[in-house]
């Protein structure tokens, strides 16, 4: 009888339980270690889940009610404050276990550095292509003396999987060093201004063309890709950002059966206004889940 009155994990995403295996596993990675401007993204996973549980689960883009599909919410990875190496190792171990079970990994950050161990785990079986939505290139060799930093995560990944496998969308805040690195390694990127002029269809077409040779893909959404008007609660806000519908449209159409993992990072709830950044992050999660389910079909 008491079962009826207990919610054993009140912070979890509310969804139908998976009876036989799972397609998508959502995992919180509340790493908040190298944040420099506005820390607080350790509270991101909880706020994104809370928002997700309170928005409608029907995706009009895909014509799918995500609630009709099962979802595995594995909870949060136990991060060790002060021990970055161990924290990253734990994210890699958990990511590996999701990939080993054939699941699509959905990481909720946490700072952007969490993408590195996830992509590393995926690279063990197949080298993925990475599409990053970000105001920043994150291509610094080091930041404040740290080689492992939210500001150098895409550089570390480009060294791991090859710069030709990385594409960055929504860029508008760069350093000369990053531009030179991107230029010399031919890392593809589209600025937020170019994206506005080109429009959603053309940008999506370019992303799909970039992905055409890839065997597996990983999508990383740094929430600062959005304009601060829509996503003020992030670690490093930058003006002149992208609009919600543009990014949601792009994410929705570039996902296909090759997607093995995604993350939504850099939500910093202490700097949010009325929770709108977490609510937008939860919408990104919803549209990604809807795309995955509409491709794989069948109710799991
Ligand atoms: Mn970033
Ligand atoms: Mn960023």
Briefly characterize the structure.
The protein is an alpha/beta fold.
Oligomer: single chain
* Name of the level-1 CATH class: Alpha Beta
Compute the number of structural domains: 1
The name CATH uses for the topology is Arginase, Chain A
- Rg: 18 Å
The helix-and-strand class reads alpha/beta
Average pLDDT confidence is 94
Between the first and last Cα atoms, what is the distance in angstroms? 28 Å
Large-scale geometry: globular
Report low-confidence residues grouped into runs of 5 or more: none
For the record, what is the CATH homologous superfamily label? Ureohydrolase domain
- Give the helix level as a range of percent: 25-40%
Q: Order of strands across the widest beta sheet?
A: 4-1-5-10-9-6-7-8
- If helices are DSSP runs of H or I spanning 4 or more residues, what is the number of helices? 8
The CATH architecture name reads 3-Layer(aba) Sandwich
Give an overview in words:
The structure is a single chain. The chain has 300 residues and is an alpha/beta fold. It has a single domain (2-296), classed as Arginase, Chain A, CATH 3.40.800. 35% of the residues lie in helices and 16% in strands. It has helices at 44-52, 84-100, 115-123, 153-161, 176-185, 192-211, 244-254, 276-296; strands at residues 24-29, 58-59, 64-65, 72-76, 104-109, 129-133, 166-171, 188-191, 217-222, 259-265. It has an eight-stranded parallel beta sheet with strand order 4-1-5-10-9-6-7-8, sandwiched between helices. The model has no long low-confidence stretch (mean pLDDT 94). Bound molecules: manganese (II) ion (2 copies). Residues 112, 134, 136, 138, 150, 222 line the site of one manganese (II) ion.
């Amino acid at each position: 009888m008491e079962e009826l009155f207990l919610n054993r994990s009140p912070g979890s995403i509310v969804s139908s339980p998976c009876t036989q295996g799972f397609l998508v596993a959502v995992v919180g990675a509340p790493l908040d270690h190298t944040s420099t401007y506005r820390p607080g993204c350790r509270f991101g996973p909880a706020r994104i889940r809370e928002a997700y549980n309170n928005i409608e689960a029907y995706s009009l883009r895909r014509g799918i009610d995500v609630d009709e599909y099962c979802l595995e919410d594995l909870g949060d990875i136990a991060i060790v404050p002060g021990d970055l190496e161990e924290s990253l190792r734990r994210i890699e171990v958990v990511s590996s276990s999701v990939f080993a079970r054939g699941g699509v990994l959905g990481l909720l950050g946490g700072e952007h550095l969490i993408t590195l161990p996830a992509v590393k785990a995926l690279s063990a079986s197949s080298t993925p292509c990475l599409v990053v939505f970000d105001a920043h290139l994150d291509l610094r060799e080091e930041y404040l003396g740290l080689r492992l930093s939210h500001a150098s995560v895409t550089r570390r990944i480009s060294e791991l999987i090859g710069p030709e496998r990385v594409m960055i969308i929504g860029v508008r805040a760069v350093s000369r060093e990053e531009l030179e690195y991107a230029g010399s390694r031919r890392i593809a990127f589209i600025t937020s201004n170019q994206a506005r002029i080109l429009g959603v269809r053309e940008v999506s077409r370019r992303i799909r063309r970039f992905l055409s040779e890839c065997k597996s893909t990983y999508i990383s959404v740094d929430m600062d890709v959005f304009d601060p008007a829509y996503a003020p609660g992030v670690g490093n806000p930058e003006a002149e950002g992208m609009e919600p519908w543009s990014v949601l449209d792009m994410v929705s159409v570039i996902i296909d059966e090759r997607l093995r993992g995604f993350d939504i990072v850099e939500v910093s709830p202490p700097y949010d206004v009325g929770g709108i950044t977490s609510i937008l992050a939860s919408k990104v999660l919803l549209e990604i889940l809807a795309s995955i389910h509409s491709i794989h079909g069948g109710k799991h």
